[in-house]
Structures are given as structure tokens and as C-alpha cells.
Automatic annotation (TrEMBL):
Residue ranges, annotated region (Disordered): 1-22
Protein name listed in UniProt: Uronyl 2-sulfotransferase
UniProt main location, coarse: Golgi
This protein's UniProt keywords: Glycoprotein, Golgi apparatus, Membrane, Signal-anchor, Transferase, Transmembrane, Transmembrane helix
The organism of origin for this protein: Sus scrofa (Pig)
Entry annotated with the keyword Signal: no
Family membership: Belongs to the sulfotransferase 3 family.
Length: 374
């Protein structure tokens, strides 16, 4: 009797022809599951208003992403908020939140390569953007003992972040002493031009004071002070010969004793350190382009630096006085012992212009931003 009643259901009235979703006759498997999904379609229908709202939201998101990229990062108030929340959270939830940009930058500035101008710009920028500018009163000690390295790295690492530390010092390997390796930046110049600048600076000083040279070189005799630079080179005076001409490469090679010995080892070690640790190594002769790149790569430190640099009021603060002796050099750079390796290093830098993780652009090639080479 039950069998007959079950057979009447397909042709009958209101009974479900497929109870419990079970297929019957020629119904394909899974048809019951499909019917349940179909029953949800009324909830998935969109009105024209809903569609317009979704498209408007997508447009706002795309425009926001575009402005984010063009502006070099998020707005300042968001960074301040994130930094504040990071500090608040560190007390109760562990270490600070990672900032969305390098928060530890070291500018181990090379002497007579425009560093005074850059430091002046950094002072203005630190007040404008609120980062911690850490400077040093030590200007004549670039080589450090192991204990001195440890002490300096400890002092730098404990500075309030984001910080930018600057000093005339050869490259420091923070990771060797258990510290977090910062991002390095630097600016160099043509080795011959740097040699000329330093030669006359030692004799006649600069804008900081008329008697500046008397303070720097009090024991220099008058005949030595007014010595023609060409004679100094041709007669092989100590000032114009090794090892004093081997100056720039140790800033990138590091604190190893062999870094102070002119040769291939120091040059290759310097290249390796630049590849791994330097975000940018620029050329003083193209300073405006270098500042443009710094503004692009480190906007939270250098945003607006180019407009500040071009401000006429800054020129009176950075302009150096003319020396009393013309800086004319008639001898070939090949006559300058020790300059050849530096010239080779600079030319090598010029062949590798693209910073790490960046594509070649007209600004990069014009400014010669030297990452992945020295």
C-alpha cells in the first residue's frame, strides 16, 4: 500500500516530487543542492543605485591610490597617528609598530662634498617634518677602534626614531655588533674637484670666518700656504701624494684596516657595501637631481627639500667665500697618485645608475643615483 502512495506523488498535487533533495527518475545528481542556491538569488540582486555606489567606491579607491603614489606616501597626519599608536602599543603590547618608511638613516658624509649644505637643509627639514636629526661634534675622527664602534652604534641605535644620524665617519657595520642595519645615503664628488677644494680650504678657509684657515692650520708656513698646487703635485709633496689622496673609498669600504690601503681589495669591499647597504650615493656636481631623488625615495625626511634649496635666502647661508688663489690645475689627473682608483670608482658608479628596486627613469639617469655600484 505504501508503495502505491509513493508512486502517486509525481503526478499528484502538493507533495515534493524529490523529498529531501533525492534525485528521482532522470533528475541529475545534485539538483536539490542547485535549487537551494537558486532560492538565494533574490538576496544577491543589485539595483542600479547599488551598482553606482560600488563603482563610486572603486573610483575613490583608485584616485586615493594614485595620490598616494604621486605624493610619495600617506599624509603626514596618518603617519603621526601611526607613530603615536605604535608608541602607545609598545608599552603594553611589545615593540613599536614598523613605520611605513625607513626610520633609521645614516649619512656618513664625505668631507668637502657639499655636506655642510646638506646638513643645513636637514636642520630645516627636521623642524618641518619632525624627525630626529642626530649630529656629532666630532669632525676629524673617521677611523674607530672596535670599542668606539660599539659605543657609537649603541648611541645611534638608542636614538628616538625616526632618526637621521650624520657624521664624518667611515662605514659602520651595525649588524656585526648585533644592531639593526640602517639605510645609508651619501654624496661624493669628482675626486679631482674634491682634491682642489680641500687643498685651498686648508689654506684659506671658507665663509665661516676670515681667520678660519689660521685655526685649522696654525703651523703652516706662509710659503707653504701660498704654494702653487701644480708644484705641489709635480714635486710630490706629502700633501699631494699617497695616502692622503685615498680619501673617498674608505667611507664606503668600512673600518677594516685594509680599507685604508689603496688597492683592489678596498675598492671591491666598498662596492659590496654600497650594493647591500646604501640606498643612494649621489654626485655633488648634480646636487639638485640628487635632492630630487632623496625627496622621492625618502619623502618623510626630504619632502620639499628642492624648493628649500632653491630659496634665495639659503644661498647666503651656504655660499663659500672665494679663495685668494685661483684653483687652476694644469697637470693631468694621472699625475695625482692615488686618484686613479677613485676616478675608476666614480666612472664605475656612473655605469650603474639605478637604485635597488627601482626602474630606470630620466631623473635617475640624469642624477646618476648610484645604488648597486661604487
Amino acid at each position: 500500500m505504501k508503495k502505491k502512495q509513493q508512486q502517486q506523488h509525481p503526478g499528484g498535487g502538493g507533495a515534493d516530487p524529490w523529498p529531501h533533495g533525492a534525485p528521482l527518475g532522470g533528475a541529475p545528481p545534485g539538483l536539490g543542492s542547485w535549487k537551494r542556491w537558486v532560492s538565494l538569488l533574490p538576496f544577491l540582486r543589485f539595483s542600479l543605485r547599488d551598482y553606482g555606489f560600488c563603482m563610486a567606491t572603486l573610483l575613490v579607491f583608485c584616485l586615493g591610490s594614485l595620490f598616494y603614489q604621486l605624493g610619495g606616501g600617506p599624509p603626514r597626519f596618518l603617519l603621526d597617528l601611526r607613530q603615536y599608536l605604535g608608541k602607545e602599543g609598545s608599552a603594553a603590547h611589545g615593540p613599536n609598530l614598523v613605520l611605513p618608511f625607513p626610520s633609521q638613516v645614516v649619512y656618513n658624509r664625505v668631507g668637502k662634498c657639499g655636506s655642510r649644505t646638506v646638513v643645513l637643509l636637514l636642520r630645516i627639514l627636521s623642524e618641518k617634518h619632525g624627525f630626529n636629526l642626530v649630529t656629532s661634534d666630532i669632525h676629524n675622527k673617521t677611523r674607530l677602534t672596535k670599542n668606539e664602534q660599539m659605543e657609537l652604534i649603541k648611541n645611534i641605535s638608542t636614538a628616538e626614531q625616526p632618526y637621521l644620524f650624520t657624521r664624518h665617519v667611515h662605514f659602520l657595520n651595525f649588524s656585526r655588533f648585533g644592531g639593526d642595519q640602517p639605510v645609508y645615503i651619501n654624496i661624493i664628488r669628482d675626486p679631482v674637484n674634491r682634491f682642489l677644494s680641500n687643498y685651498f680650504f686648508r689654506r684659506f678657509g671658507d665663509w665661516r670666518g676670515e681667520q678660519n684657515h689660521m685655526i685649522r692650520t696654525p703651523s703652516m708656513r706662509q710659503e707653504e700656504r701660498y704654494l702653487d698646487i701644480n708644484e705641489c703635485i709635480l714635486e710630490n709633496y706629502p700633501e699631494c701624494s699617497n695616502p692622503r689622496l685615498f680619501y673617498i673609498i674608505p667611507y664606503f669600504c668600512g673600518q677594516h684596516p685594509r680599507c685604508r690601503e689603496p688597492g683592489e681589495w678596498a675598492l671591491e669591499r666598498a662596492k659590496l657595501n654600497v650594493n647591500e647597504n646604501f640606498l643612494l650615493v649621489g654626485i655633488l656636481e648634480e646636487l639638485e637631481d640628487v635632492l630630487l631623488l632623496l625627496e622621492r625615495f625618502l619623502p618623510h625626511y626630504f619632502k620639499g627639500v628642492l624648493s628649500i634649496y632653491k630659496d634665495p635666502g639659503l644661498g647666503t647661508l651656504t655660499r663659500t667665500q672665494e679663495t685668494k688663489v685661483g684653483n687652476h690645475l694644469s697637470v693631468s689627473e694621472r699625475k695625482l697618485p692615488g686618484l686613479q682608483s677613485k676616478v675608476r670608482a666614480r666612472r664605475y658608479r656612473g655605469q650603474n645608475l639605478v637604485p635597488q628596486g627601482q626602474t630606470r627613469t630620466r631623473h635617475v639617469s640624469k642624477a646618476r643615483c648610484f645604488h648597486s655600484s661604487l
